[in-house]
Amino acid sequence: MSDLCSFSAAQLLEKYVRRELSPVEVAKAVLARIEKLNPKLNAFCLISETIIEDAKASEARWMAGQPRGLLDGVPVSIKDLLLTKGWPTLRGSKTVDPKGPWNDDAPAVARLREHGAVLLGKTTTPEFGWKGVTDSALTGITRNPWNPAKTPGGSSGGAVAAVASGMGPLAVGTDGGGSIRIPCSFTGLFGIKPSFGRVPAWPLSPFGTVAHVGPITRSVADAALMLNVLAQPDARDWHALPYEPRDWRTGLEHGVRGLRIAYSPDLGYAKVDADVAKLVRNAMKVFTDLGAKVEERNPGFENPDPIFRTHWFSGAAFLLKGIPKEKHGLIDPGLRDVAAQGEKITAHELMDAQMKRGALGAHMNLFHRDFDLLVTPTLSVPAFDAGKEFPEGVKRWIDWTPFSFPFNLTQQPAASIPCGLTPAGLPVGLHIVGPRYADALVLRASRAFETARPIGLPDITKLS
């Protein structure tokens, strides 16, 4: 694409500085793209009525030589799990009253406003972000820009559908078991789940301390830029890491020469689609060619599926406890089923899962004494049919996401970057996992890979 909607955030800002482009021109182009493609993809469940007005305010600041912060005039979308002042945050659920009141911004939204971003609207999510695809009774089915018959994944499915199709270069996503990385893999984008607490979040997700907030972009540099904004402190998050006043773009170009990378094709237990496995194995040659020391090595832990299910299902049960019973009939049947299983989990079983979670985290700490990074497929499958929770042969979204949720348990930084297309023309993601708090290293390795395999975008003319 060569139109205004194809520019990265970094490119837009450069053009604003040089006065080669106005935030108003960009906002109008993005709004036109939304009006054209959103009916086909269902990426947005709410579109701001003040996009042009906000862009004009940004243009005035640029003309006066007084831009506000790091993202002034850059269009950004907000996943509809994050509170946004003045807009309903319905979380994909018919059980939430649209009347509000809606008086608060989540930390990520507040920081974006402070830095002058043009907020486009709210992007679709499955109900309360409970599964790895994006459809709900409230907002319908969200579709993949590479092939609208396929799912974009989830739960940040609206966010990736928007970014991949040019409906804004940046999106905020959340990730409680893969919800940034899953859809980025299915739609050929870059997304990073930062170390837990790196990006302040409030209120805490009902699914607890497995849930992260992070950027979804078309380039690693844009994600680093966005992280500069999102990672700024907010006192409302009791779990937040101490603020690290740094530019996450620093060191992006330092490459991977000499890094010790463990490549695990299946974590020792996962079943992986043959096309996915082939693309990921071939992608590992990029790191070798760039000078990294790549060794095929599984991290050596047993499938943590039972640990994650205990955390996730009990979180679902807790979530539904807060919804009046007369509204339970409005809830996604799959979520009701998960919550029903969660209600059976005892306090002893939850404590046991928490102890095992701690042991898993310690295991990965020890693993990273020998390896700087762990690389796996992002997912075990390419995108499947839209409107389904899982492909044939499995049940529940956890069954086809074996590579993502373990690292929510361990709270490590993990990113997905596209590494090729299947014979059917669907993107596949490469999963780059770093030691806890080594977000900069994950970004650096991702950028090195991107230099060899630039991120491509779908042909949106096929959507017209």
Reconstruct the topology from this structure.
Elements: H1 9-17, H2 23-41, E1 44-47, H3 51-63, E2 75-79, H4 107-114, E3 118-123, E4 135-136, E5 140-141, H5 157-164, E6 170-175, H6 181-187, E7 190-193, E8 212-217, H7 220-230, E9 260-263, H8 274-289, E10 293-296, H9 305-321, H10 333-343, H11 347-367, E11 373-377, H12 406-409, E12 414-421, E13 427-433, H13 439-452
Parallel strand pairs: 2-3, 2-6, 9-10, 9-11
Antiparallel strand pairs: 1-3, 4-5, 6-8, 7-8, 7-12, 11-13, 12-13
Helix pairs in contact: 2-3, 7-13, 9-10, 9-11
CA(first)-CA(last) distance: 14 Å
Largest sheet: 11 strands, mixed
Q: CATH superfamily, please?
A: Amidase signature (AS) domain
Number of domains: 1
Helix run count: 13
Low-confidence blocks of residues = none
CATH class: Alpha Beta
How would you describe the shape? globular
Order of helices and strands: HHEHEHEEEHEHEEHEHEHHHEHEEH
How many beta-strand segments? Answer: 13
Mean residue pLDDT: 97
In what order do the strands lie side by side in the largest sheet?
Answer: 1-3-2-6-8-7-12-13-11-9-10
**CATH architecture assignment:** Alpha-Beta Complex
CATH fold call: Amidase signature (AS) enzymes
Give a description of the structure.
It is a single chain. By secondary structure, the chain is of the alpha/beta class. The chain has a single domain, classed as Amidase signature (AS) enzymes (Alpha-Beta Complex), CATH 3.90.1300.10. Helix content is 34%, strand content 14%. The strands form 2 sheets. Strands 1-3-2-6-8-7-12-13-11-9-10 form an 11-stranded mixed sheet, sandwiched between helices. A two-stranded antiparallel ribbon has the order 4-5. A hairpin with a 5-residue loop joins strand 12 and strand 13. Helix 2 runs antiparallel to helix 3. The longest helix is centred in the last third of the chain and has 21 residues. The protein is globular, with a radius of gyration of 21 Å. The mean pLDDT is 97.
